[in-house]
Amino acid sequence: MSAPLFLVDELPSGESYTLGGAEGHHAATVQRLRVGERLLLADGRGGLADAVVTAVGKGALDVAITSRAYDAEPAPRLTVAQGIAKGDRGELAVQAMTEVGVDEILPWAAARSVAQWRGDRGAKSREKWAAVAREAAKQARRTWLPEVGGDPDVSTKQLAQRLSAAAAAYVLHEEATERLATAELPDSGEIVLVVGPEGGIDAAEVAVFTAAGAVPVRLGSTVLRTSTAGVAALSVLSARLNRW
């Protein structure tokens, strides 16, 4: 089994380090790491340190740093605009997309989104997505922590502006004739995928996005749920871009 990963604000520069706070509590109390066991420290921006536990305290660990590395930011950048969904389907989508390598997630206030992110509820919902992405990144041993954009969400107009600035943009739509598996992909810049909520993307939104330069695409002959469409599309792109 690979070593567990814990996120730190800054990668240690010395030969020893004390992992405290919430991450230290999780390592010492929840995972019960012991002296001699190996763990990974990541700063969420590509920095990675390999370490060995030298002492265990109450809610904290002392570790010895054995090596350091840096992973360059993946290119092209993979961003998914995820239509806000009711219940926990949005969180399920965020978790799975993070595990397969999404670089940024934009909560999108689609016309057919049943749930609405307004006021304090919107801020708390966005924070929940960010927390889910953080934990999923740790589980997947990711050195780059995905961003959760939006303030707290993005409108169709704002998303169209993002699509027009991307190196490539695709709208997952069941009536599209072009397949994502054969769509032309850029070597650099940003690729933006648009995933609709439970009720799908309406015709007016598709028109706005295509006017901004996005290409409607489909994955296959079946219709996927909003919680699985994004991760399936990212899997296709990850294989085609040699991330996998």
Tell me about this structure.
The chain has six helices and eleven strands. With 244 residues, it is an alpha/beta fold. It has two domains: 5-70, Ribosomal Protein L25, Chain P; 77-240, Alpha/beta knot, CATH 3.40.1280. The strands form two sheets. Strands 8-7-6-10-9-11 form a six-stranded parallel sheet, with helices on both faces. Strands 1-3-4-5-2 form a five-stranded mixed sheet. Helix 3 (119-139) links the parallel strand 7 and strand 8 (147-148). The longest helix has 21 residues, at 119-139. The protein is elongated and about 60 Å long. It starts with a strand and ends with a helix.
Summarize the model shown.
The chain has helices at residues 21-30, 89-100, 119-139, 156-165, 203-211, 226-240, and strands spanning 5-7, 16-19, 38-42, 47-57, 60-70, 77-83, 104-108, 147-148, 168-172, 190-195, 215-217. With 244 residues, it is of the alpha/beta class. The chain folds into two domains: 5-70, Ribosomal Protein L25, Chain P; 77-240, Alpha/beta knot.
Key structural traits:
alpha/beta, 6 helices, Alpha/beta knot, 244 residues, single chain, 32% helix, 5-stranded mixed β-sheet, 11 strands
The CATH class name of the largest domain reads: Alpha Beta
And the CATH topology of the largest domain? Answer: Alpha/beta knot
Helix content: 25-40%
Number of domains: 2
Number of helices: 6
Rg value: 20 Å
Average pLDDT works out at: 94
Uncertain spans: none
Count of beta strands? 11
Q: Any idea what the CATH superfamily of the largest domain is called?
A: SPOUT methyltransferase, trefoil knot domain
- Principal-axis shape equals elongated
**Main sheet: which strands, in order across?**
8-7-6-10-9-11
What is the chains' assembly state? Answer: single chain
Major sheet: size, sense and barrel closure?
6 strands, parallel
Portion of residues in beta strands equals 25-35%
* Structural class by secondary-structure content: alpha/beta
Task: Write down the secondary-structure element order.
Answer: EEHEEEEHEHEHEEHEH
Distance linking N and C termini: 20 Å
Query: In the CATH classification, which architecture of the largest domain applies?
Result: 3-Layer(aba) Sandwich
